[in-house]
From TrEMBL, chain A:
<dbReference type="Pfam" id="PF02653">
    <property type="entry name" value="BPD_transp_2"/>
</dbReference>
<keyword id="KW-1003">Cell membrane</keyword>
<dbReference type="GO" id="GO:0005886">
    <property type="term" value="C:plasma membrane"/>
</dbReference>
<keyword id="KW-1133">Transmembrane helix</keyword>
<protein>
    <submittedName>
        <fullName>Branched-chain amino acid transport system permease protein</fullName>
    </submittedName>
</protein>
<feature type="transmembrane region" description="Helical">
    <location>
        <begin position="95"/>
        <end position="117"/>
    </location>
</feature>
<keyword id="KW-0029">Amino-acid transport</keyword>
<feature type="transmembrane region" description="Helical">
    <location>
        <begin position="180"/>
        <end position="213"/>
    </location>
</feature>
<keyword id="KW-0812">Transmembrane</keyword>
<keyword id="KW-0813">Transport</keyword>
<dbReference type="InterPro" id="IPR052157">
    <property type="entry name" value="BCAA_transport_permease"/>
</dbReference>
<feature type="transmembrane region" description="Helical">
    <location>
        <begin position="63"/>
        <end position="83"/>
    </location>
</feature>
<dbReference type="InterPro" id="IPR001851">
    <property type="entry name" value="ABC_transp_permease"/>
</dbReference>
<feature type="transmembrane region" description="Helical">
    <location>
        <begin position="6"/>
        <end position="28"/>
    </location>
</feature>
<dbReference type="GO" id="GO:0022857">
    <property type="term" value="F:transmembrane transporter activity"/>
</dbReference>
<feature type="transmembrane region" description="Helical">
    <location>
        <begin position="35"/>
        <end position="57"/>
    </location>
</feature>
<comment type="similarity">
    <text>Belongs to the binding-protein-dependent transport system permease family. LivHM subfamily.</text>
</comment>
Amino acid sequence: MQDLVQLLVSGVALGSVYALAALGFVTIYSATGIVNFAAGQFVMFGAMFGVTTVLQLGLPMPMAILLAVAMMGVFGFLFYLGVHLPLRTQSPVTVVIATVMIGLSMQNGANLIWGSVPFRLPSPFGDGTLTVFDSAISTHALASIGITAVLVAALYVLMQHSSLGRVMRAVAQDFPTARLMGLPVGLLLACSWAIAAVLAGFAGLLIAPMWFADAHMGDAIALKAFAATIIGGFGSVPGAIAGGLFVGLAEILGASYISSAYKDLLCFGAMVVFLVARPQGIFGEPISERG
Amino acid sequence: MAFLEVKAVSKDYGGVRALSDVSFQVKQGEFHSVIGPNGAGKSTLINLLTGLARPTRGAIVFEGCDISSRKTHEIIGMGVGRIFQNGRLFERLTVLENVMMGHSARKPPSLLRLAYSPRNASVDQAESREAALQMLERFGLAQYAGRQIGSLSYGSRRLVEMAKVMVGRPKLLLLDEPAAGLNSGEVERLMSLLQVLRKEHQLSVVLIEHNMNMVMRLAERITVLNFGKKLAEGTPAQVSANETVLAAYLGEGYRSAAL
Amino acid sequence: MNKKNAKNASLILALVLSLGAASLLPNAVGEYWVRLTNAALISSAAVLGLNFVLGYAGQISMMHASVAGMGAYAVAIGTVKFGLNPWLGCLIGMATAGAFSYVTGILLLRLKGHYFALATLGINVSFIIVVSNLVEITGGSNGLTGIPALTILGFAFDSERRFYYLALVAVVLLAVFASYVRHSQLGRSMIAVRDDELAASVSGLNVTAVKVTALTLGGVYAGVAGVMFALHARFVAPEDFSTSTSIVYLAMLVVGGEATILGSILGAFVITFLPEWLRWLGSAYLVIFGLLVLLMLFLAPRGLAGLFGFAWSKWKAQLSSKEAGKWRFSK
């Protein structure tokens, strides 16, 4: 029973992080219709920025985290300028391939900048444990769940109840009309990218203490995030969360009870099952057609 | 048994009801027109007729067969042809190749055939080519056969699309605002073309149009839609005199003009 | 008609010239360059296949390298573990690759494009995991060695030079068949599906069936590339068929020129030889590579073949405008 509680909490914690990564991906998809294949690398950059601010610059933890998140925001904005904007007139296929290529550059650039030796990034919440139901649960795991909940709530408030969120949704729903109405669509799209990057950044900062931080962590995370969105319901926010939790739990429980070597296959297998049997995922894809 | 029967069809998109309990029939060989203000559900109706959407309620029956949940290419294969509002053609293919695509339902492309009986494949190809060239000549477009689509005028593009559809020898032709963007001379030519095609191929036609001149002169029966519901149905004379239709769409000025 | 004839003519000319020069190659350059050329030819086979999937039918496949891997491992396992004749191994490899692509297509191509793209990423990753873990059968991460060379009537293709001729013939045959498909109803249908899926289905095309055919054909080509790889290197390991390799195939197609046969081969060669030309970049190579391809997408979305085509039509326009100028006042 003890083991199970620990596994469940770990699964939910990991799932929360996957949900954040998936949310970053979904934010871009719903705002721009772009399938960002570099999503995993965004998460990796978040972790690596954390490595720089926490380990290499040695800043006090709260400042280091904030700085890393801010760097991610700026990175998202630059990504919009450097990748999305020049390609906005091209076909979706071209844009997707562009994200694949930039992802490759990001991964190898990170390898160049930070080297190939993995880093041990300490948790902002220390490495203590709490005892819950006779099980030792790491504070980091609990904090990850908490932070994710806070971020999701913040995102909800931003999108549904602020004027910025309202205009961002307008741009997402009907780009040509928003443009004609005089909305600063470029700026709003840049905001979407910045928000997506920040979410990915948090995912990276939260997942790195669970494993380690290195330039190649992005690929595995990308796959989990993609599987999460498909399982939960492509393009939907509740879908990203539900899917993320599902994938996290499946990975932890699967690694424990079935096999550790094939744990990634489980997630992929679940994705295929959903694609074949219920492609719209748990929550279904939002009906809005992308023109 | 009616040729085409729309039976109590409703279509919901999320919270929006695009069509509400619409029924009408089209007899074989009939020229039927569907008119109504924008947003009345006319394009939705055509999408349902070609399998691009499924009715939420009701059924669509073509030649006795329920096509409500059939796939688009199957419906096209049954003899339905559709002309789009803005002339959808394949940009990377030439005019001739575009028209040859009209054969896709009757002669589906097959890799096995290509690999194992190249002779048969090339015979098929030659036949397709011949048929396409003949149709282009028929439409007066033969000189454009090798051209890229991008170099054609708007009116010519429409004609190429029509040639493509006719190559498939449809029994029922669905036209979605074919006169849009054409000047009056081109509209006249389009109308006589439709008359000729109808006679030559025993076509039944469902025409969605705003150009009342065209509708009233060509249609034998008209169905009027408004806000997704059927407002009226009848002959051109009946519909032009119908009070509710005049109020909702045609306008009082039409009555006095028609008299 | 003229443009098509001109295109055909230039293609045939290019082929003939290349074949002529190509058959002399091994005598002119050292073995290192022949080996590199062989690698480029193997990639050409794969990219010609990817051209059907992406260039014509517009489907992004991130699993192309793993499909090639299936062909390669089929030959490896067949010859090393079961002592099969390498030719038989080739057939099994191509069939496996094709069959896998067909099944994947049936299951996934009825869905929207982005589902397919993401799923193929998962497939490639899963392939690597499975191959790396089934140590008994596949040799795990260390791979399988000792694959015999292909032989015809006692003549073994066991050196770079000998393999070169085999690879050359193979790629030429693949290219000719690809051209045959391109100019058939099937090829046009694939192009139509990418251009306008809606219009394609309303023309009576079974869009999913066309996509599945494109994927299957692409898979068979990938299988050919895989068996060629196995019979060239005489050794297979999972890392040769990773997602990075799939990405490289995509880059080759994009850089060379999507939807052209010449472009597929051109891209394969350029990207294969690129590390040689950019050797001075050292470990920054892959970073620059990604950025270069990105730049290519900005500036020349039709790839190198597109640039040549553009230059060709400009040159032709120059010639014809001179002609037109002569008659300008003779109305």
